[in-house]
Amino acid sequence: MINLKEFNFNANAKPFVKWAGGKNGLINYLMPFIPKKFNSYFEPFVGGGALFFYLKNHKILNSKKIYLNDKNLELINAYKQIKINPNELLEELEILKKNHNKEYFYKIRNLDRNLDFYSLSVVFRAARFIYLNKTCFNGLCRYNAKGEFNTPMGSYKNPKIYDKELIFSVHKTLKNVSITNKDFEIVSLKTKKEDFIYFDPPYFPLNKTSSFVNYIDNFSANEQIRLYELFKMLDYEGVKVLQSNSNTDFIKELYKDFEIIEVGSKRAINCKGDKRGKITELIIKGNYE
Predict the structure, then answer these.
(1) Distance between the two ends of the chain, CA-based, in angstroms?
(2) In 177-243, which residue ranges form alpha helices assigned H by DSSP?
(3) Residue 26, CB half-sphere, CA atoms under 13 Å: how many?
(4) Are 270 and 138 in contact (CB under 8 A)?
(5) How many other CB atoms are found less than 10 A from the CB of residue 129?
């Protein structure tokens, strides 16, 4: 058992996984649009949680109810295990770290091909998810049509599979936070007037070849339209709504009745190194002050 008192709980929490579309590079652009006053905070597509951790570190979410959600079950399980079982999680991560090599990576990766995968302990599955994220190619969380993790191993010489202090800082940050694995609409409909909700959905592709296939997300044009209808309804009901999305004609046409701001950002993860450069993205703001 690791002694929690050994660690600096005052260290800033930050995303514990690499995440395609993570918002570290967009936070400075998002901050001017964070409402000065709001009640509860919602993120239906939390992903790596960059904005959540930033707002938490800057005490903007103090005394507020917080609801984090994502469709990716294994990601949400990792959040939950950091929240409730950090010691056991670190013990499993240490075992994975000690055994890491190419053969072992594929053995661990391919466990979800087995029918008994979900009978494995939730702590081990959380450790597996973090291990794969830190050792796979570019941290890309990608699944095939059967829902099996299929990103190949990355070429890291000495990957940092976990950071004890970070795990415990995230553990503290997640105290009293609601963490769920539901459809984004189900979570969003819990909002009330004067709550604040930030949508960071899987971006609409810039072109036919710009996004990898992720069957867990499978966020088609119809899903983007469903999100738009929800965004419009919540805005009408007095919920403070904010969204980031790709700079495409499709998205700009959908949200033409809202304030749309084009901003520069940087791709943190891309399968091609020369594509990890600056791009423009959209911030879409509801009708709040």
Answers:
(1) 49
(2) 184-188, 221-236
(3) 28
(4) yes
(5) 21
In the chain, the amino acid numbered 194 is: E
287 token code pair: 């009708």
Q: Are 130 and 16 in contact (CB under 8 A)?
A: yes
Tell me which residue of 123, 142, 136, 127 sits closest to 85, measured CA to CA.
123
Each residue's pLDDT tens digit, 198-251: 999 999 888 765 555 565 667 889 999 999 999 999 999 999 999 999 999 999
Q: Look-up: residue for tokens 């950002």? A: 265
Domains of the chain: 8-67+185-285 (3.40.50.150)
Residue 2 carries which DSSP code?
Answer: -
- How far apart CA 13 and CA 54 sit, in angstroms, is 8
Mapped onto helix, strand or coil, the DSSP state of residue 83 is: helix
Q: Closest by alpha carbon to 216, among 73, 119, 111? A: 73
pLDDT (tens digit per residue) in 117-156: 999 999 999 999 999 999 999 999 999 989 999 999 999 9
Q: What is the amino acid identity at position 255?
A: Y
Q: In DSSP terms, which residues pair with 178 in a beta bridge?
A: 67
